[in-house]
Amino acid sequence: MDGGLLGVSLGAGMLAAVNPCGFALLPAYVSLLLNAGGSAGFGGAVMRALGITAAMTAGFAGVFALFGLAVAPVASQLQQHLPWFTLTLGVVLVLMGVWMLSGRSLNVPRVPLRRSRASRPAPLARTFTSMAGFGASYAVASLSCTIAPFLAVVVAGFRTDVLDGIALFLAYAAGMGLVVGTLAIATALASHRVVTGLRQAGRWTPRIAGALLAVAGAYVAYYGAWELRVLGGAEAEDPVIDTAATIQQSMATAVDTVGAIGWLALGGLLLLGTGVLAVRQRRSVRAPG
Fold first, then answer.
1. Do residues 43 and 206 touch, judged by C-beta distance below 8 A?
2. 106: which residues sit within 8 A by CB, 6+ positions away?
3. Cα 20 to Cα 11: distance, rounded to the nearest angstrom
4. E strand or H helix that includes residue 107
């Protein structure tokens, strides 16, 4: 396979992480990462962030795999209904954010691995299935903006050769995961310092996360309503959407400028820094009073 085509697919996946339709969910993603903070040290915080990234990327890629390969023949008919999902998703995120702002936590049942722990709830941001669901929601909200390049690059590759298509799909998923994974590691390191420094006031962490979630949800719902208005024949110009589009374009330009090698290097440096911080933290704990 032409390596350039793999690069195009990787780049498309990276830009999919900051697409115009779904980029506002990144603050919601950060809020869930903040709410997943714990006291397991830098290494533990980063491992949680990597697990959350893997779950979100799996959910995101799974939707694109299903939509691109199984639903592509009727994609045009389904696309006009996607804004309703975007609107509904935004409202749900607002309700979740308000719930967290009130001081409550988001819990879902844990898949029982041991009978003795079957009844214990698990925080939303720490469960693989919940974050995979968030990634799937991110993908569906992003479909109307990203499905065209996905079909052009990845699905076209499947029609030429199955192995080529698989390679292109994995490159697309890796591109998305590379961006959100680097963001997750950086957030985990920052949130660990914040949570550690403000441990006595730790009750504010979920409230901050809830505020981010509510604001992100409000924009997502607004975007869905705007899409429905435009589909109904209204003018496309909107000050809120235009301002957000400017921000999104700046983010997309930054992602594209850094490039895959840059994101890999940044992620590697963050992981290296995590190792150094974890070693220092371990030594400080072992040091005599």
1. no
2. 35, 96, 99, 100, 123, 124, 125
3. 16
4. strand 107-109
Give me the amino acid identity at 164: D
Calculate the alpha carbon distances from 92 to 87, 96, 185, 208, 220 in Å.
Answer: 9, 6, 26, 17, 10
Structure-block tokens of residue 92: 């749900």
Per-residue pLDDT in tens (0 to 9) along the chain, 289 residues: 566 778 888 888 888 888 887 777 777 777 666 665 555 566 677 787 788 888 889 998 888 888 776 665 655 566 667 788 778 888 888 888 888 788 776 554 443 434 444 444 444 444 577 788 888 888 877 877 777 777 777 766 776 777 888 888 888 888 888 888 888 888 777 765 555 554 444 566 667 777 877 888 888 889 889 988 988 888 889 999 899 888 888 888 888 888 878 888 887 887 777 677 666 766 665 655 5
Q: How far apart (Å, rounded) are the C-alpha atoms in residues 102 and 213?
A: 13
Distances (CA, A) of 170 to 9, 33, 41, 65, 248: 9, 24, 32, 10, 25
Domain regions of the chain by residue span:
3-282
- The phi-psi region of residue 41 (left if phi > 0; otherwise alpha if psi is between -120 and 50; otherwise beta) is left
Chain mean position to CA 26: 6
Query: What one-character-per-residue DSSP string does 229-259 give?
Result: HHHTT--S--HHHHHHHHHHHHHHHHHHHHH
C-alpha 4 chain-centroid distance: 26
User: Are the C-beta atoms of 44 and 205 separated by less than 8 Å?
Assistant: no
Are 87 and 228 in contact, with CB atoms under 8 Å apart? yes
